[in-house]
Design goal:
mainly alpha; 168 residues
């Protein structure tokens, strides 16, 4: 099998496309957070004070998504962008976990607890499946994927599933 040589221009285009796509995802998820917060605050504001796990994660997801978005913009504009990439990676991972937990906790307020647990578990399983596929294409990403998915699973378990089960 012949290896394909990628030009600097093609690498730059690929990096820009990846950054633009990540920014679009961050903006979309940020919009979901702000909309969800606005709806809850307008329709049922007592939910915000009902569960500190819900309100804190929903509110914190917003600045973490903004930080991730701004970091990815900086990442695309710096030659040595490794630190911006790491900050964007950490910010997105935390923000996404907080958003998923917020939705799971919200589900537990308005539906049966098992619906919320199913949502959180299925989301986590699908995240792990996607990570496995990424690693199958790029075995060098194994270490970073293990760290990222361990953080995601820990967030979901400790700040999502356990609060839904009223463990603390």
């Amino acid at each position: 099998m012949e290896k394909k040589i990628i030009s600097q221009h093609d690498l730059a285009e690929k990096k820009k496309f990846k950054a633009d796509t990540r920014n679009l995802i961050d903006v979309t998820l940020l919009g979901i957070c702000i909309t969800l917060f606005g709806l809850v605050a307008t329709i049922k504001p007592d939910l915000i004070s009902q569960n500190p796990f819900f309100s804190l994660q929903l509110v914190l997801a917003i600045p973490f998504f903004v930080c991730g978005l701004l970091s990815r913009i900086k990442e695309a504009s710096y030659t040595d962008s490794h630190r911006w990439g790491k900050l964007g990676f950490v910010s997105f991972t935390l923000a996404y976990g907080f958003l998923i937990n917020s939705i799971g906790l919200l589900l537990s307020f308005v539906a049966a607890v098992y619906i919320s647990i199913i949502f959180l578990v299925v989301n986590t399983l699908l995240t792990l499946i996607r990570a496995g596929i990424v690693v199958s294409y790029n075995p060098q990403s194994l270490k970073s994927r293990i760290i990222r998915e361990a953080v995601h699973v820990a967030l979901i378990v400790f700040l999502g599933i356990l609060p839904v089960l009223n463990f603390y």
